[in-house]
C-alpha cells in the first residue's frame, strides 16, 4: 500500500489509472470501493505535503477534496511537456525535431483541416451584417444569416437567447434527428443547445448526484473511455463502474462483461446510468445494430439511464459499418424499450466541420420524467445561454445547404474531401501500425483516433518503474522527447491491466501522417532495441 | 411550519426567498440553519408528489437534491410568463399592449444597443479570413485579426486553445488591468479567460466545497444580490451567509452588519469567502475607496477569500463616483492586505460592448496558493477551452483601438454614445420613480439597473397571500399582464423582510424608457387605487 501511495503522489497518470482501477473488476474486486475512496483521501493528503503559506485562506488542506483527484488525460502531463517543448523550440533550443506534432487532441483545424466555407460565411454575416452588401457572399448564406438574425433578440448575436437555445435552431436540430433516424419523431422541446458536448454531458450527470443508504450513484463507463466521464464523476463524487470493451472483438461490448460489472458494482454504488461512446473514443469502433439492441436490453433490465455519446456520428469510415443512433434502435424495438430514458450528445467539434474552438453542440433528451426535465431546464439557466455563434454553427450543421441551392456543390465537395481524407488516414494508420514490431491495432471504423496496443520490453517496464512512471507514460514521454510526436498514454483512458496502449489522432494531412508514422517506426525500433 | 411548507411548494419566488432568509439574520437567527436544510428537504419531498411514472429511472425521488432548490430569479417565473405572452401576442391574442418590454435582463443588444463596429469587424475577419481582401475593413482591424489568427493553432478560430485561453490575449488582459490600476503589476499567468463571468465565478466557488466537523463552507453574499451566487451555492451545497446592504445609505456596506453576519454564521458554517458586487447588481451603487478598504480589512480579519464581481467596471454614471478595483485598493494598502487572496471577475456582456450572446469574460486570480492554483487550472481543463470568438472579443475590449489608429475615432464615438446614453437613463429612471407614489429609488450610480423600494397597500399584500404569491411577485405579474413590462421581483434578489422592491434595467432607448415609465406610472396609480 505504501508503494502505491508513493506512486500515486508521483505521477498523474498512475494516479488516474489507480483510482479508476480500484473500481474496475480486473485489477481489484469492485467490492473494494472503500479502498478507492481511501486511496483518494491518501492522494489528497499526499498533496498536503506540498501545500504552502499558513496565512492563505484557501489551501490544499481545505480545498474541495474532489478537485485534486480529477484527472483529464487529454490535457494531462504529456501535453503540458509538449507545450514546454514548443516554447523551447521557439527559444532556439536544439532538438532532434523542428516541431511538436500534436497527435493528442481531436483538434481538426489545428492539424490543418480547412473550415467549411458556408459555416464561416454565415458566421461572418450574422456577426457583421454590413456584409449583406458584399457580392462575394452567396444568396443562400445571406438568406440563412437573415433568418438566424431574425431569431435573435434585437437582431444581434450579442443578445442572450433562451437557456436551451434559439427555438428556430432547436427545431432544425429536431428535423435533422428525425431525418437521420428515418422519420422517427423528434420533439424540438427535447433539444438543448450547448457550448460543445461536454457541458451537456455534465448537465445530465449532475442530475444523478444522489446518495441513499450510504451508497452513491454509479455510472457505467467503458474502459478505455473518453476521460471526461471519469473526470466529471470524480468532480461530482459519483462512482465510475468500469466495463471493459473487448479488444479481441474490435472493441465491441460484451454483455457478460456488462453484467458482471453491474452486479459487482451494487455492493458499493447505486448504478444509475450507462455511458456508451459510439463511434468509440479512443477505440474507433462502430457498434452494430445488434450490439446497440443488446445494450438497450441490458440497460432496461438494470434500469439504467443511457448516455449515448454520439458526437462522431458523421465519422464512419469502414464500408461495412453504419451509424445506428440509440434512439432509432430503441424506438424501433418497440415497448418497453422505446420508453427508456436516453440522452444523446452531439458536437460541432467533430464530424466534417471540426469547429472545436467555436464551442457548439446539442443534447436530445428522450423520455425524461417531465418534472425532472423541468429541473434540468431550470439548472441550465444559471449558465444563461450557450454561445450564440455556436448555436448558429449548429444550425448550419443540422440544416446544411440543399441540392439546388447556390452553396450546395461547394459544401458537399468540402464535406466529402474532409471525410474521404479521414477514411484514407484511418486505414493507413491502423495498417501501418500493424507492421510495427509488437503493435496490434484494431481497424479504425469510425471517430478520429487509433488506439493500438503495444508490447513493451520488460526492461522498459523496469526503467519506467524506476522513474515512477506508468510504462505507457514513460513510452509517451520518450517518444515526445525524441520525435516531437505527442500522443496520449492508454492509462489515461483506462486499459486492461498489464496491457499498454496509446491514442493518436488521424487528423494530420496524409503526407504529414506518413512522415509521422515513419518517425514513429524509427523511434519504436530504437526503443525496442535499447530495452531488449 | 406547515403553512411555510405549503408556501414553499407553491411558488418559486417564495421558496427562493425563504431558503435565503433562513440563513439571513433578520428573518430568523442564522443559527437555525438546520431548519434551512430541513426546509430544503421538505421542498424536495413536496416535489415528489408531482413525480411521474414508476418505471422511470431518474425521478424526483432520486434526483440530485440540490437541483430542485436552486432558484435563479433573472430567468424565473415572471420571465417564463413573459415568453408565453410574447407567443400569445404572435398568435393574435388581444392584450392591452402590443409587445413585452423585457426590462428583466441586462441584455443590451436585445434592447436596441448597437454593437461596437470594431469588435464585429475583427470577429468577422477572424471567422472568414477571405475578408482580408475587402476594402471596407480598416487596416487596424485587419492587423488585429491577423495577430489573433496567428495566435490560433492552424490559424483557425475553430481550433481549441489552452484551457485558460490564448496566451497573447491573457497578456493583453494583464496589460489592461495594470493600466486600469495605475501601474500595479498584473501577471498574465493569473488570468483565465472564460465564457462570460458566470463560469469563472462557479470555478472559484467550486474550489471551496468542503466540509469539516460537520460544517460546510459558507460564503458571504450581499442582500440584495445577483442570484447567480445563491443558485451556485445551492447547487454546491454550500451555505450562503447573507449580509444586508444599507438601503438608507445608498446600498453601501455597513461593517457592523458584516461583522454580525459572519459572527452568527460560525454556528452553522465555516465562512470562507465574501462576494462583493461593485458596481452593484441589482442595486447600482458604486463603492467608495474607503468602503473597499473597510471590506478588505474585514476580510483579512475574518480570513475570507474575496470574490470581487467587477463586471460593471465601465458602467459608472455618477460624476461623484469612481471605480476602485479591489486589487488596486488592497495592493495600495500594503502588507498584510496586499497579500490577500482575491478573484476579480470581468465580462464582455456588460460595459459599453454588451456582447452577452458571445459569452466572454475573464478572471484575475490574485495571491492564490500555487498548489491550489494548479488545481484550479487542472479543473478547468475538462471544459476544454472558452469559445475562441469570445476570447477574441475580450482581446478587443482590453486592447481597444489607440489614438491615431484608423478605427479610433469611430470606436470612441460609439463607446461614448452608449455610456452617455446609459448615464442619462440612469438619472431619468431613478428621478422618475421617485415621483411615483410609494416609490423610493436610490440613485443609479453605476451598473445597469434600478432597484426601487415600493410600498404595497395592505389589501394587495392580502390578495397576494390569498394567491400564495410573494407580494412583489404578485405585483410583477400584475404589471406584466396589464402593461407587458417584465421586471424581476425584489424577492428574487433578497431584501429586508417586509420591504418590497423590483429590479428593472436601464437599457431600452430613451424614448422607449420614457414610454415605459409613463405606462408604469399609470399602472401603479391604478394598482394602488384598486387595493386602497
Automatic annotation (TrEMBL), chains A, B:
Task: Point out the signal peptide segment.
Answer: none
The Swiss-Prot or TrEMBL record lists the needed cofactor(s) as: pyridoxal 5'-phosphate
Q: Supply one GO molecular-function term.
A: pyridoxal phosphate binding
Which organism does this sequence originate in?
A: Zophobas morio
Q: Which reaction does it catalyse?
A: L-alanine + 2-oxoglutarate = pyruvate + L-glutamate
Recorded metabolic or biological pathway in which this protein acts: Amino-acid degradation; L-alanine degradation via transaminase pathway; pyruvate from L-alanine: step 1/1
Q: How does it assemble?
A: Homodimer.
Regarding protein family, the annotation reads: Belongs to the class-I pyridoxal-phosphate-dependent aminotransferase family. Alanine aminotransferase subfamily.
- What name is this protein filed under? alanine transaminase
Q: What is its EC number?
A: 2.6.1.2
At the top level of its lineage, which domain of life is listed?
A: Eukaryota
Give residue ranges for domain Aminotransferase class I/classII large. Answer: 137-519
Keywords (alphabetical) are: Aminotransferase, Pyridoxal phosphate, Transferase
